Amino acid sequence: MYAFTFRRPETLRQAANLLSKNGDAKPLAGGHTLLPTMKLRLASPPELIDLSRIEGLEGIELTGRALTIGAMARHADVHGSPVVQQAIPVLAKLAGMIGDPAVRHMGTIGGSIANNDPSADYPAACLGLGATIVTNKRRIKADDFFTGMFSTALEPAEIITKVSFPIPKKAAYQKFRNQASRYALVGVFVAKRGGDIRVAVTGAGANGVFRIQSFEEALKKRFSPKSLEGMTIPADGMNSDIHGSAEYRAHLVGVLARRAVAEAVGK
């Protein structure tokens, strides 16, 4: 690992100022992606800005018809939160499926979303639930936030502070995991909130998390797994590696989407 300067600001403003003064500095949340990357010498930021001491970034609360989760909330916090379990049970379940206990007790929701790994779970939940990502500068709809593999709409010195999830009427997440990393080989998140039907996919797309409009239109007519029978998506644009071909992933998307809808409707 290369030498670097470690900063530990006490306030969000201090953290933003440190990031703005050094464009190559990196914020540090859970560190489960950044630190291994640095150990492999694939990244060498001159400064790390630790966010762990900044107050107000870990809370979880239900306000009206939205569940708000602070960016520094750990996966284990989300999984074990009675508020999350009551408001959006599938979100608690999803958090419990991330990595192993060590990862869940250190990794954060804000770090996962900001990193936008193409196989991460939280981006699918954000896109599937129509979440709003709140930063120190603005509010960004999930549809506008995820812009490509490891790419987001975040600007320099912009820090995620919390994520607001609308409460769905029905929602479920099905994940076919890589047994070694526990990342999603394919993960499908489905949600119904009034007339808004969303189907979000992670792990499969070469460009990262995405929605399937054809599945959503079919489910608007009838929210049932039967509505998706025989429906598939093209293999073009799917990931293909030693763990699964593009065709295999495309097939899994259809299978998991039907399972997710069946779970959401209680079948």
Give an overview of the whole structure.
With 267 residues, the chain is α+β, with helices and mostly antiparallel strands. It has eleven helices and 14 strands. The longest helix is centred in the C-terminal third of the chain and has 20 residues, at 246-265. It is globular. 43% of the residues are buried. The model has no long low-confidence stretch (mean pLDDT 95).
Highest CATH level, the class of the largest domain: Alpha Beta
Strand order of the largest sheet: 4-5-10-6-7
Helix share bin: 25-40%
Largest sheet: 5 strands, antiparallel
Mean pLDDT: 95
Brief overview, please?
With 267 residues, the protein is α+β, with helices and mostly antiparallel strands. The protein has helices at residues 12-21, 34-39, 75-80, 82-87, 89-96, 101-104, 109-115, 122-129, 142-145, 213-221, 246-265; strands spanning 5-7, 26-28, 47-50, 60-63, 66-70, 132-135, 139-141, 146-148, 151-152, 160-166, 170-177, 184-193, 196-202, 210-211.
Spell out the blueprint of helices and strands.
Elements: E1 5-7, H1 12-21, E2 26-28, H2 34-39, E3 47-50, E4 60-63, E5 66-70, H3 75-80, H4 82-87, H5 89-96, H6 101-104, H7 109-115, H8 122-129, E6 132-135, E7 139-141, H9 142-145, E8 146-148, E9 151-152, E10 160-166, E11 170-177, E12 184-193, E13 196-202, E14 210-211, H10 213-221, H11 246-265
Parallel strand pairs: 1-3, 2-3
Antiparallel strand pairs: 4-5, 5-10, 6-7, 6-10, 8-9, 11-12, 12-13, 13-14
